[in-house]
């Protein structure tokens, strides 16, 4: 393992998180040459297809070629444009009750409506606190069954657009509404829109698609990580928006194993084809031996191997 980048590899892994590193480990233990690029791929840097695989252009202009590509670049949380919200993100503004809910248990919690899963999110946070409010913000207030569920669980609904979040010292103080009201809260749950960090794949014709959950966009892939572009795999949050660290690591290992198997299959097909080719250098040398026997002549010793001609791609000579 080293940090000196070569010009070509069996596999380039884009992304050095749990999925990318576990995929790279699986490949390296299969004796594949692997480059993990954790930084240096700008959002819109091109990845292009070539006759022998792919080429990825880094931010500094270098190009790295690979026979296969494993994308594990994760996702970006796109937050609502509300003053004060981003500054509190990851502290007392959070999104997942399982990841962060224990830390805000029994506090005054608000849930900001941002999409179709917001009511469900409020019900989950109600398990952690008796004091939960649902801020409708720019969405219509819940109606029908959803309204009934919130009421049954004692979750109040606050109508009106949220103007800002206010803090006192290093703690959230409350939610300021557009009409001037300040609703005191100690924590605010927000479901961000999640977007795959995969703009550099546009050169391959591979673009993010809407996730079935409605939570954002991802790179579609099958359970093994194979995408619609032959030779390109995806693992971790770039394809599974809800994957936690353990799941992402497992997906990376699976993708790495499948990529190695794909390369083995390709190499085996090539070996079989070479053995069947009657015009290969090996076959021609054998025929020459059978025809000439001991009648070979010239200045070369009889036991010296017959030189082999290099087989050129016709397209390289146009």
Quick structural overview:
The protein is of the alpha/beta class. Helices cover 25% and strands 25% of the residues. Helix 1 packs parallel to helix 6.
What can you tell me about this protein's structure?
Helices cover about 25% and strands about 25% of the residues. It is an alpha/beta fold. The strands form four sheets. Strands 1, 2, 3, 4, 5 and 18 form a six-stranded mixed sheet that branches. The chain has a five-stranded parallel sheet with strand order 7-14-8-9-10. Helix 1 (about 20-30) runs parallel beside helix 6. The chain starts with 7 loop residues before the first strand and ends in a 26-residue tail after the last helix.
Question: Tags for this entry?
Answer:
five-stranded parallel sheet, single chain, disordered C terminus, six-stranded mixed sheet, 2 domains, FAD/NAD(P)-binding domain, alpha/beta, 318 residues, 25% strand
